[in-house]
Amino acid sequence: MAALGFAGCSMPSYDRALWALRTWLDSWPGIGHVAVGMHRQGFDLQLTQYDERGWRATFYTTGMEHSPTSATGTGWERTPWHATQHAAWEALKKSLTTTDDAANVLMDSGAGIERARLLHRGELLEAATVAWNVVEGIVAVVAGVLASSVALVGFGVDSFVETASGAVVGWRLHAERSGRADEERAEVLERRAGRIAGVLLLGLAVYIIIDAGRRLLGYGAEARESVLGIAVTAISLVVMPLLGRAKLRTAAVLGSGALRADTYETITCAWLSLTTLAGLVLNAALGWWWADPLAALAIVPLAVREGLEGWRGEHDDG
After folding, report:
1. Is 212 exposed, middle or buried (0-12, 13-18, 19+ CB in 10 A)?
2. Residue range 134-181, pLDDT digits in tens
3. Residue 56's closest CA among 83, 38, 29?
4. 240 near 269, Cβ under 8 Å?
5. Is the model's pTM score more than 0.90?
6. Cα–Cα distance between 58 and 63 in angstroms, integer?
7. Positive or negative, the Cα torsion across 287, 293, 296, 298?
8. CATH value at residue 11
């Protein structure tokens, strides 16, 4: 079939080999070889002579009924060999186009499978985030109450707020993967969850300011050593950055703004773990009871910022 390429080219008279090849193609034996080659590709030739228009060559897919709608390549020329060559090229080009279309479908299918895999990964990461935040929140609040640690209580409440965000984002990813995505419903749910989380965070900031402030002024019990609190914040300081990094990579590949926004909240939780752990360690090692309320006050700017963004619906959900 590669020889057909020379048939449509203008050949210089001194290039005798190529000239001989084109001369051979422009003959009845050449037509026979083209027909045999096309048959091997799955096409049958029909050649008809018309007095007024010359020759018409048509190739049909082998095994199909010959009709105008089933023709894969047609050529009208004054000579039978040129008509055959023209029709052969048309059939081959159409076949290649069909193959390309099939390849595109396969590529799209592959892209869909890859996206479903990434969505599932995002779901698992959100499930892990929610599960850890629930455990972290319970342990931190209980340890904070037992040790009279406002920093631990604030850290635990923040963990519960992060749980709501992770649950909503995980639901969105699952809905898209299962083909039940409802963007309008998802946005309403996310805005509602964001406003609730915003109110809780702002309330948490008010609680910390009041409780930490009165403790620093000498009112209320001093924070005691909490081995349990040190353990949970130390583990969180390892777990949260690992989860945040994995979620950020997945969000970048998926192009998910909601997952990216939730990732930043996970990273924020890691910073809260660091400040809370620092206050607990200083209190336990040096007896600096005031380090605990100071560590709690370090949560306030982040809580206020996240709370206002959640209330206003300013989190990136693109």
Report:
1. buried
2. 999 999 999 989 988 888 888 888 888 788 878 888 888 887 777 765
3. 83
4. yes
5. no
6. 14
7. negative
8. 3.30.160
